[in-house]
Fold these 2 entries.
Entry 1:
Amino acid sequence: MAVGSQTIRFFLGEELQEVRGLDTNTTVLNYLRLQAGRRGTKEGCAEGDCGACTVVVGRPVGDHVEYRAVNACIQLLPTLDGCQLLTVEDVRSSTGELHPVQQILFNRNGTQCGFCTPGIVMSLLALSQQTGPISTYERQLALVGNLCRCTGYGPILDAAQDVSEKIEGTPEQPWQTPAWNQLQRTSPLSIEVGEKQFFAPQSVQELIQLLDEFPQSILLAGGTDVGLWVTKQQQALDTVIYLGEIAELQTTAFDQKGLVLGAMATYQAALPLIAEHVPALGALIERIGSMQIRNVGTIGGNIANGSPIGDMPPPLIALNATLYLRNSSGQRALPLEDFFIDYGKQDVRPGEFVEKIHIPLPPKHSLFNVYKVSKRFDQDISAVCGAFYVQLDAMPGEGREPLIVAARICFGGMAGTPARAFHVEQRLQGNRWNEETINKARVMMDQDYAPITDMRASASYRLQVAKNLLRRFYLESYMDRGAARIDRQPAVSR
Amino acid sequence: MTALTFKKSGSIQGGVRAPQPHDSAAKQLSGQAVYICDMPDVTGQVHIHVAYSAQAHARVIKMDLSEVRAYPGVICVLTADDIPGENDVSPVTPSDPVFAKGLVEYVGQSLFAVVAESLAVARLAAKRAVIEYQPFEALIDVETALARDHYVLPSKTLRKGNAARALESTPHRLQGALKIGGQDHFYLEGQAAFAMPGEDQDVTIYSSTQHPSEVQHCCARVLGIPDHCVTVEVRRLGGGFGGKESQPALFAAIAALAAKKTGQAAKLVLDRDDDMIMTGKRHDFMTHYDVGFDSNGVIQGIEMTLASRCGMSADLSGAINDRTVFHADNAYFLEHVTIHSHRCKTHTVSNTAFRGFGGPQGMMVIERVLEDIARHLGEDPLLIRRRNLYGQKERNITPYGMVIEDNILDTLLDQLEQDADYQKRRQQIQAFNWESPVLKKGLALTPVKFGISFTTKHLNQAGALIHIYSDGSIMLNHGGIEMGQGLYIKVAQVVAETLQVDIDRIKITAASTAKVPNTSATAASSGSDLNGKAAEVAAQKLKKRLQVFAAEHYGETTENVCFMPNQICIGNRVIPFDDLVKQAYLNRVSLSATGFYRTPEINFDADTQQGRPFYYFAYGAAVSEVLVDTLTGEYQVSRVDILHDCGESLNPAMDKGQIEGGFIQGMGWLTTEELVFDSSGQLKTHAPSTYKIPTCADRPPVMNINILENNPNRVETVYRSKAVGEPPLMLAISVFHALSDAVASLGDYRQRPTLNAPATPEAVLMACEAMHREVNG
Ligand SMILES: Cc1cc2nc3c(=O)[nH]c(=O)nc-3n(C[C@H](O)[C@H](O)[C@H](O)COP(=O)(O)OP(=O)(O)OC[C@H]3O[C@@H](n4cnc5c(N)ncnc54)[C@H](O)[C@@H]3O)c2cc1C
Ligand code: FES
Ligand code: FES
C-alpha cells in the first residue's frame, strides 16, 4: 500500500487542526480536554452511556454535510480525519450570545448542576440540524443517551419541544462552513506513533492488503465496543485498521431477495431502509444504545463482536440472514447462525473481515417479531432478546386456525452465543397456530436453554420471560397493537 | 473594569418569590462553568490514581509496590506509612482509614495512591502492584450480618405506648416483610479534589464536597496540622445528593498528602467505575412488621424491625438509621408502636447519606403496611391511608413524642385527590384491568411528611459573610454549597430582598472555609433554611448600620429612613443605594458583616428518644399511574400528579426543579436502579452500562406538578419558605405502590402483593407470578 499521510486533519470548530505524533489510541474527549484545552465537554462515564461528552461531528456526505451527535469518550481521534468537530465552546456566538438552543434551555431552567448540560446542548444542537417536523418520540430518541441526575428531564424535554418548534425547517448554525477542500487527501491516513499504527484504507482492496500485511491488527468500525477496550480496560491497541473510509462497505440496498447491508452501515444510516421493510427490526434498532451510539455503531460490528447479548444476531438469525466474509482468497458466505461457534469464538479465518449481510424478507403468510427485555427500556443491554419467525399457511384471524409450516426462533442472553430454540421450533412445526400449541411449545424452552444469573437478570427470570415472549408473539398475531405489550414506540417511525 | 450601572425601578429584580434562573445557567450552557476536573493545569501538577482492595474481607499479607514506583512517569506512591497525622477520615466514629493497613473490609477500600505525571500513567502503574491477601469470611448482605449480630453501632428500639399488648387485642393482625434496595448517587461529576501546597504548613484544597468544613478538619487531622492551615474552597458540584457529604474527605486527604509530599499541585479525579466501587450508597434495608388494626383498617398497634446494610464502618449510619425510625410513621398516627433498628456491619463499602437520609426507607415500610391492610380488608389503599393520617388536635403525637403543629395533610390530599381525578380513574382502571388480559394498570396516592432539621442538634447552625464595596456592589458568601439545587441564587434573592437591591448587584462567591468557618454540610434539605437565614441576618446588620448612618448624616430619625428598591428614602430625600454606600464608606462605617443563625426550638433527648428533633415538617403527595406487562414485568409510569408544600417558595422555578428532579430520582431508586453485589462482595453494577438511572424517556409522559399555594410556613423560617431538597424524592413511593396495585389486580385486590424494591421488571414479574400462584392455590 502506498505510503499514506501521518497527519490527522479536521476542523475543530472553524479552525483547521493538523495533529501529528499523538498516541493513536487517544480518545476525542481526552484530546479535547488534555490537548486542545477545551474542558467544556465532560467525562461522566468514559463508556458511551451518559452523554456528558457528547460532541457533534460534521461529515461531508455527497453534496451536503451530516451533523451527528457522538460520544467523544469512546471515539478515537484519528477517526475524525476529514471531519468537523464541534463542541460546546463552538455554540455560543463569537460575541458571547447564547445560541437559540442554549437560550431555550436557559429559559426552561434546563440546567441544575450543569454537568450534563454541555452534552445536552450538543444533542439538541444535532437535533436542531434536522429539517422538517420533529415528533415527541424523535426528541426522546435524540436525548435518551444524555443522562441527567438533577432535573428529572421535564425542562429539557420542554426545551427540546421549543427547539423543534423554533427551528423547524431552518436550522441555525453558529459556525462557519469550513473549507472542506482543505481536508481532501490524496493518500490514505496511515499513522505510526511509537509502537502504534493506525490505518484508514479507502477501498476494500487496500483493506485486504493491509490485513495481509498486518494479520494481528484490530478492525475498527464505529468503535462503540472497541473504544471501551481502551477506556475501561486500559488496553493498548497497537495496530488498528479503521473501516470508516471505505465507501463500499457502507452501502445499504434493497433488492428482490431482501436487504443488503454493508458491514459499515451504521444503525442510523440503515434504519430507514430496515424500518420500511422489516418494521419490527427497525423498532429494535431504535432501542440499541442511544442516538450517539447508533450514529457510529454498525451492524457489522455488532455481529463481528460476537457477543451473546448483541441485539442484531437473534432477529437476523430468525430471518435466516447470510453473512458475507472476505479476505485475500475471496468471498465466503455462510448462514449467520453458523458464524457463532461458542462463547467468544466465531468462524473467522485469517485476514477475514465482515463485508455485508443479506437479510431475506419474510414471505407471505409469515409472522416475525423481535422483543428486547431489559431493566430499563431505553439504552440498556438486553437481559433477553427474543426473535420469532413463523411461516404459516394462512394469516391468523382469517377464519381458520393456520398451520405452522416452519418456525425459527432465536434468543440472545440465553446462552453463550445467540441460540436457536430448536425444541420449541419443532413443537410448533406442523401444528395449528393456537393457544394449545403455544402452551405446549413454550415449556420446551426448558430443553433449549440453561441461562445464567448475572447483574442483568436471574436465570429463572430469563427462562420465564423467554416462555412468555412466545406467548406475546402469539397474542400479538390476534390482538390490537399495544394490547399485548406496552407500546412505547409509535407505529410508524418516520 | 467598567463601572457597574444599576437599574432603578419600582421593584427590585430578583427578590424573594421571583422565579430567578440558576445563577450559573448561562455558564453551564456554554461550557464555561468550571468544575474541579476542569481547573486549569498548574506547572508541575501531578495526578493521582487510588488503588483499592480486590477482596471484601482479608488481611493484606504482602503489598509489593516496587514496580509501581519504578514505572516511568511515576513520582511517588503513597501508603498508610506516608501519613503524618491520623490515618482516619471518618465523619463521626473513627473507622475509615485513608489507606487500609493490614485489614481490608470491602472491595474498593483504598490501599495506596500512585502520584504521576499523568492520570493514564498513574493508572497503568497501579496495575504493577503485587498484592497478596489472606481472605476471611465476608458478610455481604443484611440477612447474614443480622443472623450474626454483626453491627457497626448498637441497635436501638423506640417505643411509644404498648405495641405488644395492642397487637394481642386487635381484631386483625398481619405480618409482612419488605426488602428495600440501595441506590448509587450517580452524580454526573465524580469525586474530585485539587490540592495546592502553600507557605508554612498551608494547603488549599478545591474539593467536590457538600461539607467543606469536614474536609478541612479531616485533612488537617490526616496531615497533623491545625485546621487553620487548611483552606477548602468549593464553587459548585456536578451533583451531590448526599454522596458528597462524608465521602469527599478521603479523596481530598489523599490529594493533600500528595501535594505535601511532592510540593506540587495535585489533582485527583475518580473515574466512574472507581467512584461507584469506592464510595458509599443509600442503605438497603431488610424490614419486617407485625401490625394490628380494627375493621376500618385503623392501626391499633405495630412493631417494626428495620435492619440496614451499613457497610464496613459507621460513617453517618447512626443518624441515617435514626431518621429511618423517625419516618417509619410517615404521615400516620401510630399510638402503640415499637421500632427496632439494626445497623448491620457488612464487608461492603460504607453506606452513606443520600437524599432523604434514611427517611425514605422508613416511609416505604409503613406504606407497605397500609397497602397490606387495604388488601386484607378489600378496601382502596387510599381510604385506609386517609383513615390513619395524623389528626389536628388529637392523634397528633409522633412515636418520638413530638406534637405535630403544622399538619396540612387533609387539605393537601383533598386537593390532590380532586386535581388528579383519583376516584374516577380508580374506576376506569378497574374496568380496564377487567378487559385487558396482559396489560394491567395500577394507581396509587401516597403522602409525604418529612421532618426538617439535622437530628444532630449542633449541626443546625450556619454563617454568612457579606461585604458591600464602596461602589455599591455586594459580595455574598456563606457556608452552603451549590450542587445544582439553586441554593446560591435563593440566598442571593434573600439578600437582594432584605437590602432592596437588584440581584445583579450581588456577586455570588465560592464557599470557603477561610470566609465562613465551622459550617455544616449542605444536607438535610437545610441549605436555604440555614444559610438563607444567616445571610438575612448579615444583610439586616448592614441595613441597620446604613439606616443609622443615614439618619445621623442627614439629621433624621431612623424610622424615617427606609429602603426602597435600589434607593433609600431619608425623610423627603431619596438617595441611590450606591451613593449612600459611598458616603457611609467616607464616614468610616463598616460595610462588612457576618450573619449567624441557629435553628430555634429543636430539642431531642437521644437517650429517651423523645423530644422535638424537627423544627417543622414539609408535606407533599403524589398520585402515580402505571401500566404493567404481566408477561415480562415491564412497565411504564404513564401519569403523575404532584402537590407539594414549599411553604412560601423563595424561588418557584428552583423549587419546581427540586420537586421534579427528586421525584424522578426516587422513581429510579424504586424501579430500575439495582445494585448487585455478588457473593464475594464485588459490585457488579459499577457504571451506567449496568446501573440504570432513569432516562428522559422514563419521565412519565403526563406529569402535573403543583406547589401548594397560600401556604406560609407556620414557623418563622426565611421568608416563611420550606426546605425542598429531599422531601419530593419520597413522592415516588407512589410509583412503587402503583406497580404493586397493578400486581394486586391479578388477585382481585384481595391478596397482598409481594413486590420488593427496586421493582425491576424482574421483580414485578416475580410478584405477578407469586400472585398467580396465590390465586390459583
Ligand atoms: C452505550 C452503549 C450502548 C450499547 N447498546 C447496545 C445495545 O443496546 N445492543 C447491542 O447489541 N449493542 C449495544 N452496544 C454495543 C455496540 O454498540 C454494538 O455492538 C455495535 O454494533 C458495535 O459496532 P461498532 O461499529 O461500534 O463496532 P466496533 O466497536 O468498531 O467493533 C466491534 C468488534 O467488531 C470487529 N469488527 C467491526 N467491524 C468489523 C468487520 N467489518 N469485520 C470484522 N470485524 C469487525 C471489531 O474488530 C471489534 O472486535 C452498546 C455499546 C455502548 C457503548
Ligand atoms: S463520558 Fe459518558 S458517554 Fe462519554
Ligand atoms: S443538571 Fe445535573 S446532571 Fe443534569
Entry 2:
Amino acid sequence: MTQIDSTTLNQWYVIQSSAALTPSQPRKTRLLGRDILAVRQEDGQATAWEVSTKGEQGQALPVRECYDYVWTTLGEPDGDIFSMPEFYEDGRRMVVCGIATVQTSPGRIIENFLDMSHFPFVHTDVLGAEPDTEVNNYKVNLRKDVNELWATECGFYQPKAMASATEGIEVDYQYRVANPFAAILYKTCPDRADAMDLVGILPQPLDETNCDIHYFMLVFDDVNSDQELIQFQQGILMQDRVILENQRPRELPLQRGAEITIRADAASIQYRRWIKEMGVGFGTL
Amino acid sequence: MIKLYDYILSGSCYKVRLMLNILNIEYEVVPVDFYPGLEHKKPEMLALNPLGQLPVMVDGDLVLRDAQSILVYLASKFDDSNSWFPDDAAARGQVAMWTAFGGGEIMAASAARLHDVLNYPFDIDQQRKSAHAAFVILDDHIAEQEIMGLDWLAGGAPTIADIACFPYVSLSEDGGISREEYPAIERWLRRFMDIPGFIDMPGVLQHWRN
Ligand SMILES: N[C@@H](CCC(=O)N[C@@H](CS)C(=O)NCC(=O)O)C(=O)O
Ligand SMILES: [Fe+2]
C-alpha cells in the first residue's frame, strides 16, 4: 500500500465497543492495513498494540474509552475525539448496534450515509416510499471553527422513521460529519417533537476498501427494547451494504474524470471537496 | 398467540415470517439479540432450542425449532386451501424433498453470508463451492419444471418448498455468490415475489434492483 496521508493517520478510530471488549474476548483486527490486537486487561484497562507480520507484539497504541467505545490511533491526533454532548443527556439511551463488515472504502460509507435520495429506493416503505421521492433543498455548510461538515434543513417524508414510529411522518434531518470518517445523523424523534434522535456511524477502515462499521443510536424511546432498536438499525444497514458493495470503484473518486457523478447531491459534492482539501488519499482515487 | 423468536437478518426466520404473512396469521415477534449478543447461545434460549439456533416458534404448549418443521406445522394448521402442504402422497413427498433441500444443501449459501456479513469463521471457498453446486441442481430442476408448464419447485402452485428455498437463494449475493449463471432461478425468484402476501427482508429487494 502507498503511504497513508497524515489526515487519515491522525484520526481516532473505534476498534470495538467497550462492552464487547472483555478480558476473555480480545479483538484481533486491522486498522488502515495494519494488524492490531485490542485486549481488556484484568484490571479493566483497555489496551491495544500493533502485531508484526510474524505475529509478534509490536508498538503499544494510545487507547481511549469514550461513548461506550474503545478508540485508538496510528498517528498523532491534533485533539480529542469529537464532542457529542448528547451522550450525557438525561433520559437518552445509548444503543450500540454492533459491527457490519462491508467491502468498500470509508469515504463511500460516509457519502452513502449523507445521501437521502436513496431512501425511497433502498429503504422502501421504511425510510422512504415512492412517489414521495423529493429531497428538499437543504443547506450544506462547512463549520470552519470546528472543521465539521453539516447538512441542515433536510426534510423528508418517511413511512417508518424509527423503530418506535407507527405511522408516516415528515422528518427533519441534520447531518454532521465530525471528521472525515465519522458521521452522525440527527432526526426528529417520533416520541418527542422538541428533541432529535441520533444515529452514528463510525467506520473502522481495515484497509482502503474494507471496513467494519460500528454504529449506534442515541435516542429517547420508552417503547422499544434495545433489541427492537438494534434489529431495526441492522436491517437498514444491511440494505445499504448491498448498495455499497456494488459501487465501483470501491474507492471514493476525488479526481476529475474518475467517475461520472450523474446524480451526486450537494452533500456528497461538499464532502468530497472537503476531504480532498484536507489531503485524504486513503480509500480515494 | 403464536410467538416467533426472531432475528431480522436471519434468512431462516424470514422463511417463517413469509409463511405467517402469506397465510395472514397473527403473531408476536420476540426479537433475539443474535448479533452481537449471541443470545441464542444463552441458557434461556437453549431451553427452547438446545441446538442454539433461530427460528423457534411457540404456539401454546408446542415449541418447534427448525424453519422447515415450522412451515409444515403452520401450513397444516392454517392453510385452508391445502395447497402449501398438499395431502396427496406423491405431491407431499416432492414437497418434503425440496423443503429438505432448502434446509440442507441451500444452507451453504447461508454459511457464506454469515462469513461475509458477520465474520463467522467458515471456510468461505468451500461454502461458496457447495452453494454453487446446489444452485446448479436447483436451476436445472426449475428449468425442467418450466418445460412441463410448472412454475414452482413441487408442482403448479407454490408450496412450503418454495418458501424454504427462497431466502438464501435470494440473499446469495450477501455471501459473494453471484446468480448470473442461473437464469431459471432468476425467473423463479421473480415469480415468488409476486405471491400475494410476499414480504421483503433487508437485502432481498436491494439485490434485485441492482
Ligand atoms: N435447521 C435450522 C437452521 C437455522 C439456522 O441456521 N439458523 C441460524 C440463524 S439464520 C442460527 O441460528 N445459527 C446459529 C448457529 O447455528 O449457531 C432451520 O432451518 O431453522
Ligand atoms: Fe441507506
